[in-house]
Write a structure and sequence with these properties.
This protein is α/β, with parallel strands linked by helices. It is built from 15 helices and 16 strands. It folds into 2 domains: 277 residues, Queuine tRNA-ribosyltransferase-like (TIM Barrel); 99 residues, no CATH class.
């Protein structure tokens, strides 16, 4: 069961979400985010459910053992298949999929970015060819808001353009202006849809409005000047939360860390801060140290499908022959059901045999590792020893080369 929000964190009626920072250690912060469906303790890792499902993981496991309070779904992919009319006819994505906790939907902007050979960006939106059947499609801020209202997400992302990491300054500024224009249009259409009652996920909520929340996205590529301008102008438009987009898209790791150190502490203190699509355990800890609250990434399940496990002593590849007779669990420090029951030797046997179960088991463990890492970071912040926790954790993760 998801814990009910205590009275000290309740927002006044009319707000879509409630947010409270309960502890800080330097710039790192622990908070409580209440949506209309879940109480979410932060920092938090959000499993990615691109097609309305987290690959290889049953919702029962996400709820009962892993206790994930919020997952992602993808506007672009669900727009193409099964299509919004089908999901709307089924009562929204929560009813369609049976997931009853919080959902955050991305706007489709990143997927459009990844379709460089199949899309054409215009002022009014993006024309692209479906990667499924080649048919022509069109996405705009207005259409993205309409799709996300039909999906019934609890947190909706503004439609943005995600520029490549190594874009030049002139084109980065042009991209930023487009994103800011789209942010204004996203908010305008979002508010209209809320007033029209188009949100299929609306639920009666004692302490909140029961409506969707809308997050704005900060862009600007690798240029600190543009990042600051994007932040200021996005805050001026006004959103329920703010995300850092356009990182881990080809830029050097040092550039990403520089941007996080620069921009995250300047983001509004009284709103959730979300780093989109990042990343490794090391990336998450770095971002937490600068004040980021929310994360998502496909790595836990993507790596799980290729036999790669995240552990407290670095990443291991279960395909390695040295695990053929290894009776140890993936991570002796992990208490997930996979580590409590299965050996490395057995998991390697499953992988070598082409058994689908191995992808399910390692993905489960990887998600447990990411979710627990954020819970441990939260506790360290509350205790006031986050820097020491970060140092020891990174020391363990750097042992990867020995495994």
């Amino acid at each position: 069961m998801v814990t009910r929000l205590s009275s000290q964190f309740r927002s006044e009626k009319g707000r879509a979400i409630s947010w409270q920072v309960i502890s800080k250690d330097g710039n790192a912060r622990a908070g409580v985010l209440q949506t209309r469906r879940s109480l979410i303790e932060t920092p938090v890792f959000m499993p990615v459910g691109t097609q309305g499902t987290v690959k290889g993981i049953r919702f029962e496991c996400l709820e009962n053992e892993l206790d994930a309070r919020i997952i992602l779904a993808n506007t672009y992919h669900l727009f193409l298949r099964p299509g919004i009319e089908i999901i709307r006819a089924c009562g929204g994505l929560h009813k369609f999929s049976s997931w009853q906790r919080s959902l955050l939907t991305d706007s489709g902007g990143f997927q459009v970015f990844s379709l460089a050979e199949l899309r054409k960006i215009r002022e009014d939106g993006v024309e692209f060819r479906s990667h499924i059947d080649g048919s022509r499609k069109f996405l705009s801020p207005e259409i993205s808001m309409e799709i996300q209202a039909a999906l019934g997400a609890d947190i909706v992302m503004a439609f943005d353009e995600c520029p490549p990491g190594k874009i030049d300054f002139k084109n980065a500024r042009k991209s930023l202006e487009l994103t800011l224009n789209w942010a204004e249009r996203s908010k305008k259409r979002f508010l209209e849809l809320q007033d029209e009652g188009a949100d299929t996920g609306f639920i009666s909520c004692q302490d909140l409005s029961g409506r969707q929340a809308l997050f704005g996205i900060i862009q600007g590529a690798g240029y600190l000047q543009l990042r600051k301008e994007s932040l200021d102008r996005t805050v001026e438009i006004g959103f329920d939360g703010y995300a850092i987009g356009g990182l881990s898209v080809g830029e050097e790791k040092s550039v990403m860390y520089e941007i996080l150190e620069f921009i995250a502490p300047q983001m509004p203190e009284d709103k959730p801060r979300y780093l989109m699509g990042v990343g490794t355990p090391e990336d998450l800890l770095e971002a937490v140290s600068h004040g980021v609250d929310m994360f998502d990434c496909v790595l836990p399940t993507r790596n799980g499908r290729t036999g790669s496990a995240f552990t407290s002593f670095g990443k291991i590849n279960i395909r390695n022959a040295k695990y053929a007779t290894d009776s140890e669990p993936l991570d002796p420090n992990c208490a997930c059901s996979v580590c409590l029951r299965y050996s490395r030797a057995y998991l390697r046997h499953l992988y070598q045999s082409g058994e689908m179960l191995v992808a399910i088991l390692i993905s489960h463990h990887n998600l447990a590792f990411f979710l627990n890492l954020m819970r441990q970071a939260r506790q360290a912040i509350i205790k006031g020893d986050f820097n020491e926790f970060k140092r020891k954790t990174l020391e363990g993760l750097r042992r990867e080369s020995q495994n």
